[in-house]
Amino acid sequence: MDLYLPIANLSVNGIWIVALGMLTGILSGLFGVGGGFLTTPLLIFYGIPPTVAAASASTQVTGASVSGVFAHSKRKGVDYKLGGVTVVGGIFGAGIGAILFRFLQAAGQIDVVINILYVVMLGTIGSLMAKEAMESIRPAQGSTSRSAPKRRHHPLVTALPLRWRFYRSGLYISPFAPLILGILVGILTMLMGVGGGFILVPAMLYILGMSAGVVVGTSLFNILFVTMATTMMHALTTQAVDIVLAAFLLLGSVTGAQIGTQVAQKVKPEWLRLALAVIVLLVALRMLFGLGVQPDEIYTVSPL
């Protein structure tokens, strides 16, 4: 089944696009990440211009997050107060990202910047995930009777002014911490077409010190609204959203999210993290290779 993508000016296989959306949905259900950090580079590998891939992937990430938010909400796994603060920051960050996107697009450097950002981010995140997964799989050394240390927020968070209580997360911290985190994620979502969960989840755990039971649900809550905002901004400012591409990605992602949720209950999480880390590192290496190879056609997509 061939599809014509009007914005990208390409004909693609619709079944492959649906399958890619399903993969993203599975990742969302498994790890609480939007999955856009793999969708965008895979679309680029398929020949879709980076600008169109990044703008359209953010639409699909929204759909992958909806069912996850509902599932975690039923078991009270979403901190709506803290999530609301990150959403506000994310929308503001998306506005900043839109300005940067237009500037880089006008300078003719947006495609290169998107690729470089992915190489850096995927390489870093993949390495950290692989290290953590290997440490979890490796047999424990010494006594195993000691309890795990209590999570505490980063010292930089303590230095910020004002304090709010986020009861569901078990935190008493400055609202500026999740606000700043949301801004950074919003900028990355606009530039890279990612949901930001692969940054939000570890940041919420190790910087904010959130309770592990609400991290995934709160991350998906943020992703849901921030990707909605970035899609609207892309449609209004960059005109790079391909509605046909986004619709087929969305079709696959909603189904994949349900599959991912079921798989997550049956497989050991450390093995899942290791598998994802390997995939992420392979994609980063492939994108790094692509930066050093001249493409068959040198072009980018810009609004008329």
Automatic annotation (TrEMBL):
Keyword Cell membrane: yes
Keywords on record: Cell membrane, Membrane, Transmembrane, Transmembrane helix
A single GO cellular-component term on record: plasma membrane
Entry keyword annotation includes Transmembrane helix: yes
Ranges annotated as spanning the membrane: 12-38, 82-104, 110-130, 171-199, 205-228, 240-259, 271-289
Topology of this chain in the membrane: Multi-pass membrane protein
UniProt xrefs under Pfam families: TauE
Compartments (UniProt record): Cell membrane; Membrane
Main location: membrane
PANTHER family tied to this protein: MEMBRANE TRANSPORTER PROTEIN MJ0441-RELATED (PTHR43701), MEMBRANE TRANSPORTER PROTEIN YTNM-RELATED (PTHR43701:SF12)
Family: Belongs to the 4-toluene sulfonate uptake permease (TSUP) (TC 2.A.102) family.
Protein name (record): Probable membrane transporter protein
Organism in which the protein naturally occurs: Pontixanthobacter luteolus
